[in-house]
Each structure stands twice: as structure tokens, then as C-alpha cells.
């Protein structure tokens, strides 16, 4: 009985070897021409112009509605939800008149956040924050999450709630390339 099992295992192993081997030369490049088909019906599934903002400020019951709302209508529909959540999360906005480092009070700041777009400066530096320019775009090396945490928790001069104002991820795991595609190869 044991010999039959060994024979079956040997046959299965040899079958795998035969099926796995082929005569193709793996060094030749074969170009397959493909065309892109954009026909059909597409729908918006998620918006993430500013990373983590949608995740933190939109309640789970409102996620689909928020993601399907065009950005020009988001502030009117969701600003009050954002403001409620901001005041519930951040002691930097606990008192009437509290502002962040941009000089924005809770209502103004959440109106800005609720319009989930990535702003881009057409005539200045593109950055999420560089000490002077704020929300004028996003460079690959920008520490977007720390900037958002500073604006949410850091108060008027970025000194409030220091434990909440930094994600403590101070560098990328790989250096960005100096030419396109700029992103480093994955591990």
C-alpha cells in the first residue's frame, strides 16, 4: 500500500515538472498591444484629496454620501459634521475663538477641510506646508499627515498638544528618485 502512495507522489511530482517547463526563451521581450476601453458607466467610490481627512471627519454612516458628493457641494453639506468632529477630537478648538496656525477658527477650517480637494498653486511653490506656503499642492516628500495633525491639534502656534501633533514618521523608507517616475522601486 505504501509503495502505491510513493508511486502516485512521484507521478504527481514529475507531472508538475513537465507542466512547469517550456521551451520559451524568458529573455525575449514580447510586446502585447492593448487598447484602452473607456466605454461603460463609472462611479466615484472614494475621495481623498487630503489624506486622512475623509477618514477622520466623515462618519461611517455618511461615507458613501460624502464620496459621491461633488467637491463644490461638500462644504455646504458636511462642514457642520466636520466641525462637530473637530471640536470632539481637538482640545485646540475647545474654546470659542480658538484658531489654528493658519488663523482659522473651527468653522472656517472645517469648511476648508470639508471640500476634499488637493489645491494646486499655479504660480507658486507646490507644497502641503513648508513653513510659509500652506495647502498650495503636494510634493512627494511633504509630510502630509504631520501637517494635518499640526493644523488640527497644534493650536495657534503649533505648540499645543505636542503628543498629538506629529506622526513621528520623519522620513520615507526609500529616497525619491530625481527623475520620472520619482518614486523608488518597491522593496
TrEMBL record:
PROSITE patterns tied to this protein: PROKAR_LIPOPROTEIN
Q: Provide the leader sequence positions.
A: 1-24
Among InterPro entries, the record links this protein to: DUF4331
Report keywords, A-Z.
Signal
Q: Which Pfam families match?
A: DUF4331 (PF14224)
Give the protein's recorded name.
DUF4331 domain-containing protein
The organism named in the record is: Polaribacter glomeratus
Amino acid at each position: 500500500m505504501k509503495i502505491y502512495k510513493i508511486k502516485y507522489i512521484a507521478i504527481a511530482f514529475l507531472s508538475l515538472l513537465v507542466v512547469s517547463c517550456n521551451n520559451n526563451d524568458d529573455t525575449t521581450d514580447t510586446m502585447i498591444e492593448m487598447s484602452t476601453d473607456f466605454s461603460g458607466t463609472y462611479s466615484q467610490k472614494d475621495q481623498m484629496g487630503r489624506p486622512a481627512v475623509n477618514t477622520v471627519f466623515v462618519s461611517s454612516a455618511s461615507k458613501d454620501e460624502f464620496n459621491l458628493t461633488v467637491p463644490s457641494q461638500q462644504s455646504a453639506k458636511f462642514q457642520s459634521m466636520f466641525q462637530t468632529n473637530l471640536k470632539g477630537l481637538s482640545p485646540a478648538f475647545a474654546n470659542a475663538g480658538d484658531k489654528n496656525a493658519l488663523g482659522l477658527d473651527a468653522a472656517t477650517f472645517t469648511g476648508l477641510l470639508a471640500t476634499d480637494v488637493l489645491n494646486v498653486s499655479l504660480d507658486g511653490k507646490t507644497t502641503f506646508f513648508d513653513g510659509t506656503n500652506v495647502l498650495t499642492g503636494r510634493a512627494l516628500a511633504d509630510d502630509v499627515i504631520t501637517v494635518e495633525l499640526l493644523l488640527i491639534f497644534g493650536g495657534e502656534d503649533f505648540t499645543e498638544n505636542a503628543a498629538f501633533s506629529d506622526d513621528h514618521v520623519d522620513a520615507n523608507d526609500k529616497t525619491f528618485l530625481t527623475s520620472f517616475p520619482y518614486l523608488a522601486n518597491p522593496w
